[in-house]
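Exercise 7. Predict the structure of DUF397 domain-containing protein from Streptosporangium canum.
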Amino acid sequence: MDLSAAVWRKSSFSGDNGGQCVEVASNLPGAVAVRDSKDPDGPALLFTPAEWRTFVGGVKSGAFDRLA
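Solution. The predicted structure, encoded as tokens:
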């Protein structure tokens, strides 16, 4: 997929941590792209919008929280 039109954004929670973040582009037709902010010319993962919504929902619900 051509990602030249992707509009990349970082989470507002990223802060000034030296760029160790992921960036997300959700403006692509039929896809959500995710990349490492330290390697913007490197590979990107592609998800369907439904897959991305499911992942974000899991994050928000704590499904991926580490067990103590």
